C-alpha cells in the first residue's frame, strides 16, 4: 500500500488531508513539525510527502533541501495559504512536484497525490533488462528476439547521450518501460523525471501543464503555475502520445527543443530550461507529416534517434518467456500455485494476434491465473477472444507426443476418417492421399498393439473436438459419443505429461505406448498423491477434479 507522509502544524488541516487520503486506501503517516517529519523519512519508506509550506521549525525551502538529502526523488506536494505561494513556486523550481492552496480541495488533493505516486513508480522502480531469462522483477524488460536485441542495443547507445529520443510502437509494446530504462541509465538519473500524457489532457490545459501560466492568463487561472519544462530543468520529461499534440503546441515544443527557452502562457518573461525529452507514440508520424497534421521539423528533430518496439505477434518465442514471466508474477500477487500452462492453452496463446500487445498478454495471464483452480492453466481459463481466434486444426501445431508415439499417431490420424466439418486432403477423385492402413511406425509384434494405436489417436481426437467446442467438455463428450467423465482422464493425461516434466524423481517414461487410459489416470493420481504427501484433497485440487471423485477413483483403482 502506498505510504504518504502528511506534515502540517494545524491539526484540522492535518486531519482533513489524512482522512481524504486514507479513504483512497493509502497508508498515511503524519507529523506536525519538520523534525518529526525528517525522523519519519529516515525510518520508513515514504512514497509521497504532502507538506505545509510554513512549519514552526522551518519553511518549505529548507525542508525540501533536507528531504533531498534523505530521498532525492521523493515527490513533494506543498500546501500553502495564498500569501505563501511565492515560496511554493520557488519550491517547485527546486523540484517540488506541485502545490495546493488552502482550503484544500479534496478532489484536487487526490488527483495530485495519484499523479505523484505515478511519478514515484516511474523514477524509483528500477527497470532491468533481461534478454534471456525470466526475472523475479515485474519491471524487467523480457525478450530475446532479434528486434528486442536491437532495442537493448539502442538503449545502451543512447541512454547516456543527452539527446532527444523517440520511442515508437503499437500500444502496449513497452514504450513507457523503455523510457524509464533510458532515464535510469542516463547521466540525468539524479535529476527529476516527469511524465505527461499528451492524449489525456485537453489542448489548453496541456499547454499550461507543459509551459505553466501567469495569474489571470485565462479564465480560471487564479494563480501563477510552473509548467513541467520549468519544473524539470536538469531532468528528463517523458512526453507520451506525442502524435496527439496539437500543431500550436508542436511549434512551442520545437522551440524548447531547439533553443531551450519558452514563455509561460500569458507571460512575457522568457524562461530557459535544460530538459531532455523522451517522446513516445503509437501513431504513424510519417503519414501525419504528409497529411499536414504533424510538423515536419518536429518530426525530424524527434526522429533523430528513434527506438522501435516490435508488436508482440512479431516476437516469436519471446511470447513463451513473457507467459512464464507473467504467470510467475500473477501467482505471487494472487497467492496462487499455478505451476504450468497446458499445451492447448500455450497453443492458443501462440496463435492469437495480440492487438493489445504485451499489456493484453499480461492481463490475460493474470485473469487466467485467477480463474485456475488446479496447478495447470488450461485453455478453458483463457478468454473466448483468445481461444476463438485459434485455428480449428490443432494437428500441425500440437506439441509433439512422447517419443515413438508421435509418428504412430500421425499415421493413425491419417488413416482415421476426417472429423466432422473438416475435409481430409483429397485428390480430385475424393480419395484420401495421406497414409494407408498399414500403420507403419507401430510395432506389430507389441503385445499392446491395440492400445498403442488407439492411445496415440485418442489424444489427438479429443484435442480436436475440444477445440471445435471451444473447450466445452460436455459438448465434446456428446460429439465423441463418450461419457463426460472419460474426458477427465484426458485432462489427467495432460497433467501427467506436465507433472513429470517438473518431477525430477520420476524417471519413468510419461506415457508408455502400451498404457491404457485407466493406467494413465492411475499414474496421474499416484504422482499427484506423492507430490502432496498423500493428501487426497490437495491431490484432487492439483488434478482439477473434486475430492469426492478422487476418493472414489482411489478406491476403484485400488491405490
Ligand atoms: N518486454 C517486456 N517485458 C516485460 N513486460 C513488458 C514488456 N513490454 C511491456 N511490458 C509490460 O506491459 C505493460 C504495458 O507496457 P507499457 O505501458 O510500457 O506500454 P506502452 O507501449 O507505453 O503502451 P501505451 O502506448 O498504451 O502507453 C506494462 O505493464 C509493462 O511492464
From TrEMBL:
> What's the main place this protein lives?
cytoplasm
Organism superkingdom: Bacteria
Sorted alphabetically, which keywords does the UniProt record give?
Activator, ATP-binding, Cytoplasm, DNA-binding, Nitrogen fixation, Nucleotide-binding, Phosphoprotein, Repressor, Transcription, Transcription regulation, Two-component regulatory system
Q: Where is the signal peptide?
A: none
Q: Which intervals hold domain Sigma-54 factor interaction?
A: 141-370
Under Gene3D superfamilies, the record lists: 1.10.8.60, 3.40.50.2300, Homeodomain-like (1.10.10.60), P-loop containing nucleotide triphosphate hydrolases (3.40.50.300)
Q: Where is this region: Disordered?
A: 389-434
As for subcellular location, the record says: Cytoplasm
* Location of 4-aspartylphosphate modifications: 52
The record, for SMART domains, names: AAA, REC
Which PROSITE patterns is this protein grouped with? Answer: RESPONSE_REGULATORY (PS50110), SIGMA54_INTERACT_1 (PS00675), SIGMA54_INTERACT_3 (PS00688), SIGMA54_INTERACT_4 (PS50045)
Chain ranges of the Response regulatory domain? 3-117
**Pfam families cross-referenced by the UniProt entry:** AAA_lid_14 (PF25601), HTH_8 (PF02954), Response_reg (PF00072), Sigma54_activat (PF00158)
Family annotation (PANTHER family)? DNA-BINDING TRANSCRIPTIONAL REGULATOR NTRC (PTHR32071:SF95), TRANSCRIPTIONAL REGULATORY PROTEIN (PTHR32071)
State what protein this is by name: DNA-binding transcriptional regulator NtrC
Q: Which organism is it from?
A: Aporhodopirellula aestuarii
Amino acid at each position: 500500500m502506498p505510504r504518504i507522509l502528511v506534515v502540517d502544524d494545524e491539526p484540522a488541516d492535518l486531519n482533513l488531508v489524512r482522512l481524504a487520503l486514507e479513504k483512497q486506501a493509502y497508508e498515511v503517516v503524519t507529523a506536525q513539525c519538520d523534525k518529526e517529519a525528517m525522523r519519519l523519512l529516515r525510518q520508513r519508506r515514504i512514497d509521497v510527502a504532502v507538506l505545509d509550506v510554513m512549519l514552526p521549525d522551518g519553511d518549505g525551502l529548507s525542508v525540501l533541501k533536507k528531504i533531498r538529502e534523505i530521498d532525492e526523488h521523493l515527490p513533494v506536494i506543498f500546501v500553502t495559504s495564498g500569501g505563501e505561494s511565492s515560496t511554493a513556486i520557488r519550491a517547485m523550481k527546486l523540484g517540488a512536484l506541485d502545490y495546493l492552496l488552502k482550503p484544500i480541495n479534496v478532489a484536487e488533493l487526490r488527483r495530485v497525490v495519484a499523479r505523484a505516486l505515478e511519478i514515484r513508480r516511474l523514477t524509483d522502480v528500477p527497470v532491468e533488462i533481461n534478454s534471456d531469462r525470466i526475472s523475479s522483477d515485474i519491471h524487467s524488460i523480457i525478450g530475446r528476439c532479434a528486434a528486442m536485441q536491437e532495442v537493448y542495443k539502442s538503449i545502451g547507445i543512447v541512454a547516456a547521450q543527452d539527446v532527444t529520443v523517440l520511442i515508437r510502437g503499437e500500444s502496449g509494446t513497452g514504450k513507457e518501460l523503455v523510457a524509464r530504462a533510458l532515464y535510469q541509465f542516463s547521466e540525468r538519473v539524479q535529476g527529476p523525471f516527469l511524465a505527461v500524457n499528451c492524449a489525456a489532457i485537453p489542448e489548453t490545459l496541456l499547454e499550461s501543464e507543459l509551459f505553466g501560466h501567469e495569474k489571470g492568463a485565462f479564465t480560471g487561472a487564479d494563480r501563477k503555475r510552473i509548467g513541467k519544462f520549468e519544473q524539470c530543468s536538469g531532468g528528463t520529461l517523458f512526453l507520451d502520445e506525442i502524435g496527439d499534440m496539437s500543431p500550436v503546441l508542436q511549434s512551442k515544443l520545437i522551440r524548447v527543443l531547439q533553443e531551450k527557452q519558452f514563455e509561460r502562457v500569458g507571460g512575457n518573461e522568457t524562461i530557459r530550461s535544460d530538459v531532455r525529452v523522451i517522446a513516445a507514440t503509437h501513431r504513424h508520424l510519417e503519414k501525419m507529416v504528409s497529411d499536414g497534421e504533424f510538423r515536419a521539423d518536429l518530426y525530424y528533430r524527434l526522429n533523430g534517434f528513434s527506438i522501435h518496439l516490435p508488436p508482440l505477434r512479431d516476437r516469436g518465442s519471446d511470447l513463451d518467456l513473457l507467459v512464464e514471466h507473467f504467470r510467475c508474477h500473477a501467482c505471487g500477487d494472487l497467492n496462487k500455485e499455478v505451476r504450468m500452462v497446458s499445451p492447448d492453452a500455450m497453443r492458443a496463446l501462440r496463435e492469437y494476434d495480440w492487438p493489445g500487445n504485451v499489456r493484453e498478454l499480461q492481463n490475460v495471464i493474470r485473469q487466467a491465473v485467477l480463474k485456475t483452480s488446479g496447478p495447470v492453466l488450461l485453455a478453458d481459463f483463457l478468454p473466448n477472444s483468445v481461444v476463438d481466434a485459434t485455428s480449428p486444426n490443432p494437428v500441425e501445431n500440437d506439441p509433439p507426443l512422447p517419443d515413438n508415439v508421435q509418428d504412430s499417431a500421425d499415421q493413425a490420424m491419417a488413416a482415421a476418417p476426417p472429423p466432422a466439418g473438416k475435409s481430409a486432403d483429397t485428390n480430385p477423385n475424393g480419395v484420401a492421399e495421406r497414409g494407408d492402413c498399414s500403420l507403419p511406425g507401430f510395432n506389430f509384434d507389441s503385445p499392446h498393439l491395440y492400445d498403442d494405436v488407439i492411445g496415440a489417436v485418442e489424444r489427438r481426437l479429443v484435442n480436436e473436438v475440444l477445440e471445435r467446442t471451444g473447450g466445452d467438455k460436455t459438448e465434446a463428450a456428446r460429439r465423441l459419443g463418450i461419457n463426460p467423465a472419460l474426458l477427465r482422464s484426458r485432462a489427467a493425461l495432460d497433467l501427467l505429461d506436465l507433472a513429470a516434466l517438473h518431477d525430477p524423481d520420476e524417471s519413468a517414461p510419461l506415457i508408455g505406448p502400451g498404457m491404457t487410459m485407466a493406467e494413465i489416470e492411475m499414474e496421474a493420481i499416484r504422482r499427484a498423491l506423492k507430490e502432496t504427501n498423500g493428501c487426497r484433497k490437495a491431490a484432487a485440487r492439483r488434478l482439477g477434479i473434486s475430492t469426492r471423485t478422487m476418493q472414489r477413483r482411489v478406491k476403484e483403482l485400488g491405490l
